[in-house]
Here is the input.
Amino acid sequence: MSFKYKEIKNIFILMILHSVFIFFNTELAQSQFYFGGDGDGHSKETADNVNFSTISESINVLSVSSLNNNNTYGIGEIIRITVTFSGNVTVTGNPRILLETGSNDRYATYNSGSESSILIFTYTILQGDISSDLDYNNINSIDLNGGSIIDENGLYACLTLAEPGTTNSLSANKDIVIDGIKPIATIDLNPLQNSITNTSPIKFRITFSENVTDFDENDVNLSGTANPQNVNITDLNQREFIAEISGMLNDGTVVINVPADICLDRTAGNNNGTSIITHNTVVYDTNKPEVDITLDATQSTPSNSTVINFNANFSETVNNFDNSSVELSGTANPTTVDVRGGPLNYTIEVSGMTNDGTVLINIPADQLTDNAGNLNLASNNIQNQVIYDTEKPEITISSTETSPTSLVLIPFSVDFTEEVTNFDINDIEITNGSIDNLNSVISNKKWTGEITPISEGIISLQISDNKAFDLATNGNIASNIFEIEYLNFNNAPEILNQTFYINEDIENGFIVGNIIANDIDGDDILFNIKSGNIDNIFDIDTYSGEISVINSESINYNITAKYELTIEVEDNNSNSKKSEALITINIIDVEDNFEANNVFTPNSEKNRLWKIKDVEKYTDFELIIRNNSGIIVYKTKAYKNDWNGTYNNKPLPTGTYYYILSNLITKKTYSGFINLINE
Here is the structure.
């Protein structure tokens, strides 16, 4: 192996530095002082125990080689690397050497050789490792890894290596090729092989990343819904192979794969890796293409559109589908067809109808071919007909009540000559009244409702044209004008007795509640507190009936526990009438302290019940007790200090339980825990 000038220069400089090191080592030994460090192969910690007068020079690495023969090695094989020192060395721990092995450098780990001049390191080749001439990474590649390499005097050896590729380096001494790359097969269709076919055999091309051995028919996995049975392999050049697949039991997919570890490369003997799929699937198709005809999603029937849209949905791609492939028929006498879209789903536009009636389309058999060359079946006509309708619906408005009438809710009906859409209460024009309770009673052809008069006199109803539309989207013709005379008879408003609850510590502005009242004549209602408002504690909104607190300072449960207000309501009518109701407002005594024992022993006579102090104050409260899993073990209203620590008539185990005592009206809540102890 030849040396370049730069390499010779580097070796010369190393020799000079080595001589200088020996000189200073001798001088320091004579003076019994040491100023070195771990980096130069010596240890300051061991300096006091060394007889420096006996040391002439440091132990250093002479050469790196291998016990392996010059060859190519593959995944899993072991490379034994030797490091030769200038004298015997002792090894502790697990020193290692960093090797240059491609994108991921690997370590050779110390194996044996301590107390000799040759150390052996081992490295196992991993997948992905690669080197055309194995060597270590750099001159400092020996990593003590927490261990040590020392000479017979207890001093660290100098671990500097020759430059990789130079004399005494691993690659200079040995020609070891690392091949950790598995051969990979790429699967693709063979040239001229269609991805959809009705012929057999089906051909694939399998190309490995390098030459392989032992690859044959048994190494190909067949799958797919076509259930292929046979495979024949032709070796083109030990790297490229043709796989011919046959024996399909039915239509479907034909899939091939080359699994891992079924053949070897020819250089390192590595098992192959999982194949790369470019195109490993062919559709084997001997079925004739089918086609379903349906209405387009935007197409209704009946329809008044001059263009009727159908969809033709093929089971697979077909060739040469155009206007001439569609047959037209029907009593509307359509004359024109226009095909758009594809390759599987097409829109078929039909036009040129000469009168109202039916529009039909059909696709005959054996007019088209799929990509496998199969002729089509006749269309499956799921919905191939549309009713073409251009007539407008008519409307009649009527009532079962005769004119004049005194009813405050006058019935009426709206009858269409056919079913319509988009019709609602806002489409009815009314004078001197309003409409309520409009409902369809016969398949969107007939509606009924009620008229609420505004004042005495004539009430009129009518519906303009194009307010409602039939199923063909034809707008209606304007209805008749319906009229009826109303005579006013006013009714008194209705009001209900109600009860409310408030805490005695409530603040001004608190909303107690709303009074429920209504007027069947539809008149506005005015509210007033007629009596019972002691100390003017409450106020009522004249128009909404909302009761609020305006003098909370005067509320005291111990003085007045209940207020009974007489509320008067009056309708806003020229012939106004009034009604009254009793509104009860209960004051809730606010307790500042709540006490309950948090420990009780159900199986002892003295403390066998869980008790709340002054329990009679909480008769309007609901009690819920849960275990530590959140399961309700006890629930009651108006608790009477009678719970004995049982659930479903069985004693509960010792533990911590949690209670919530709450008033659903006042929203007052008390909670805490109970320690239940069974002695």
